[in-house]
Amino acid sequence: MRCRSSLALSLLLAAAGGAACAAGALVDPQAVLRGWLASLAFWIGLPLGAMMLLFAHDLTGGRWGAAAVPPLRAMVAALPLALLLLLPVLVWLPQIYPWARPEEAAHLRNQFYLNTPFFLARAATYAVVWLLLAWAALRRPGTGANPVAAPGLILLGLTGSFAAVDWMMSVEPDWGSSIYGMMIISGQLLGALALATLAAVLGGRPDGGRVDGGRVDPGQRNDLGSLLIAAVLLWFYLSFMQFLIVWQENLPQEITWYVRRLAGGWGWTAVLGALAQGAVPFLALVWWPVKRSRRGLAAVCALLLAAHLMECWWLILPGLEGGFTWFAPAAALAMGGAGAAVFLRRLGRRGAGRAPARAADGHVAAPAALPDGARHG
Amino acid sequence: MTARPASHRDHTGRGTGHALRGTVAAFDHPDAMLEALRRLRQAGFSRLEVYSPYAVEEVDELLGRKRAALPLVVAAAGVLGGIGGFFLQYWGMAVSYPLNIGGRPLNSWPAFSTSTFEISALCMLLAGLLAFCAACRLPRPYDPIFDVPGFEQASQDRFLIWIAAREGRDDRALLHTLLPEGQGVRIDEVPA
């Protein structure tokens, strides 16, 4: 019952957000698209990060997997939906990317890489690789060694890094940073781990609302909390190193990226992000009572997810003309609602019974139907 | 092992540690040691000590140990070291000898951050090491328990429980029933 009502609520949110974006697209398509891209950067990171964590668990094992693997698999199941949500960006490339507008691209020296046909071909390549890996990850029941895990992690590292450069960094085609891809991937890992922990911790309720087939004990919470500390440190290290190097060089073509992102309201956003995605979760999690308590861990995970969404907006929106737009939260709502519907459906079905748990068509059929609902609403 | 007759001596003893006579039981397996520790606690033995090659969970609870203030000491050292390290650089670069480097502000805090972190980590390490030694009563060049044959195995593959002799009581018979000797267990007397 609980599951069905939250499913309906997610679809309602998806419809409301989708309607706002659709209405806005008639008035100001550029604003809708930049908000859309900024929020998609968050939502597409969850299935990608989840896939990396699944493969990592296949290789290393660990008791945290018993709690986190079911929600991670449900997140991977939302990958086709996330890729579908990328289509509006791919169709209206010149609305967002300066290099796709011939008059602005003329002075660019990296046109051999940043041009529309090559960009679309790369996007198609990433999509095919990711869908095949997701299929390989979900095909198996989830225990035992997966031969795809090691090559899958290497492929994900490469394609994820290139996709971050293509989709996110190239909104400012004059600027480049070699650490950027890994920085984005570390954020995706952090987001996926936070959502999986949140789902595992909340799902293990004794009142029958459990969705993961078993309660999460303090030991597992302890391990998940320790992994979250590692993810927070990795993300903070990579993000701060990029800032430190750019600050030390102080070159006009590099520092402008930070000048835009540290001025005015975006500067406070950066401070807030460093606190909410770095210092506060770190200090909370090194104190072991928080790490071991259900409520404490859930609160830290919710904070991390909110801060990560804000970080994605901060990474993309200041680089585009117009800056912040309210279509970013609207798009986040639309995508989040649709994604949550897939996620909950998948988790709920798993909890309901073992037999239909891995209906092979489930993760392909469901997402295809969802954007329709969002559009009609 | 054969138990030597107990001889009452004064409790000042040699060494810096246990000034009490006692008994040592060596176990091949940590679970057997924990089981024996539970039985000893139930039988009313309160002055106990465990020596093991690695930290065994539950031992602290069974021995009734309070949490040491070690984490607080380390945290305080980190904060102090961080503040001190940052101030050292701030004072040098912005107050004492201001130098314009690359047009950056004098208080170029991102550039100070790595050294601040390193100094903070160094302070945490040094303070943590000293506090750890103090909490463990280290260094201790000699302790009567070193005379127990096979004590060095506590840092290899044996799990040892030291049981203090109780004032005016002969617990040898009780100990022999509580600790099933022979099944991966051996018992030795520790002189004071």
TrEMBL record, chain A:
Which residues belong to the signal peptide in this entry? Answer: 1-22
Which chain regions cross the lipid bilayer?
Answer: 35-55, 76-97, 117-136, 148-167, 179-203, 224-246, 266-290, 297-317, 323-344
Give the top-rank taxon of the lineage listed in the UniProt record for this protein.
Answer: Bacteria
Q: Would you tell me the protein name for this molecule?
A: Quinol:cytochrome c oxidoreductase quinone-binding subunit 2
State the UniProt keywords alphabetically. Answer: Membrane, Signal, Transmembrane, Transmembrane helix
What is the protein's species of origin? Azospirillum picis
UniProtKB/TrEMBL annotation, chain B:
Q: Which UniProt keywords apply?
A: Membrane, Transmembrane, Transmembrane helix
Q: Where are the transmembrane segments?
A: 69-91, 111-135
Q: What InterPro entries is this protein classified in?
A: ActD
Name this protein carries in UniProt? DUF3341 domain-containing protein
Write down the species: Azospirillum picis
